[in-house]
Structures are given as C-alpha cells and as structure tokens.
Specification:
By secondary structure, the chain is mainly alpha-helical. The chain is 61% helix and 4% strand.
Length: 181
C-alpha cells in the first residue's frame, strides 16, 4: 500500500471517530443556551457559566450543570429557584472537590453520565430540527399542467403507446392493438 493510501485511510478513520462522538459544547455561549431553562433566564445562565468557567474547563462546567439538572429533575424540580440550584450544584461540586470523577458522582445520584449526555444531545437535535422546519419556507402549490386528463379506460392508455405496441399489460388488463404498418 502506498503512503498516500494509508494516510487517506487514517484520515477517513479519524473523521469517522470524530463523527461518532456526541457533540460537546465548545463555547460558553453554547452552554448558556443549553442551560438557560435551568437557570431561569439567559442572564442567569450567563452569570452561572461565567462563574463556573473561572474555576473549571467548559467540559467540566457542562458535566456539572447536566448532573445538577438531572438531579433536580429526579426530585421533580423542573424550574428550580436560585436557592435550589445553588444547593444542588454545591453538593455536586463538593463531591468533585473530594476527588470523585463525574461518572462516580452520576452513579451516586443514580444516573449514568453517558445517558444524561445522550438525552441532552437528542433533545438539542430535536429542537434544532424543529427550528429548521419552522424556518423552512412552505413550497408553493405546483400549477396544474396543461395536459388533458387521463382517461379511466385502460385500453385508451394502450392506444397512446403507438402502433408498434402489440400487447401491453396495465395492471391486470391486457391491451391488444392491431398492427398498423
């Protein structure tokens, strides 16, 4: 195998691997958008993400907020008050500071971090598709073509095929045309 072919195969494998991993929030703005409902407003989410990114990387902030949201939803709290959010997030961050990994913290809460992130990705994809559908213009009706309507008689369809057709099957009816030469 030539070196170019090996490089091409390696590049294809690398792209396939990259596409198979779930999307990771790359910017703080993406995190703000993702957790606006949790924080109650975009301003609260911006403040929350900014405060957390001063101490942690974006991936850790994303994990902390995802686990916080899941733990609150498990307790039936969909729209937490700032105090409820603070208590839940502080409890998670204390576990993290004690040396536990995100997976261990998730399991201690009765979750799998992968399942939480997968559900989050599915929700975002669904919302993105809904936004795309809403922004897609509706196609105008096609104007009727200027052609005569089709006859209901199957033998009439055979007659349109021309004189070279001797036997033609349309659904279960055979059309026989006289040979005209």
């Amino acid at each position: 195998m030539g070196i170019m072919r090996v490089q091409a195969m390696f590049l294809a494998a690398l792209i396939a691997m990259a596409l198979s991993f779930p999307a990771i929030a790359q910017t703080s703005q993406q995190l703000v958008k993702r957790y606006t409902d949790l924080a109650g407003s975009a301003e609260n989410a911006q403040s929350l993400v900014t405060g957390l990114t001063q101490k942690m990387a974006l991936g850790n902030v994303d994990n902390a907020l995802a686990l916080t949201q899941a733990s609150l939803e498990k307790r039936g709290i969909v729209h937490p008050t700032p105090e409820q959010l603070k208590v839940a997030l502080t409890a998670l961050l204390d576990q993290r500071a004690a040396g536990q990994g995100w997976g261990e913290i998730a399991h201690s809460l009765g979750f799998s971090l992968g399942e939480i992130k997968d559900a989050q990705d599915r929700r975002e994809r669904r919302e993105g598709m809904q936004e795309a559908r809403a922004s897609t213009p509706i196609r105008p009706e096609k104007p009727e073509a200027d052609r005569p309507p089709r006859p209901n008689d199957p033998t009439a369809r055979c007659a349109r095929r021309g004189p070279s057709v001797r036997k033609y099957r349309i659904s279960s009816v055979f059309c026989r045309l006289p040979a005209t030469e």
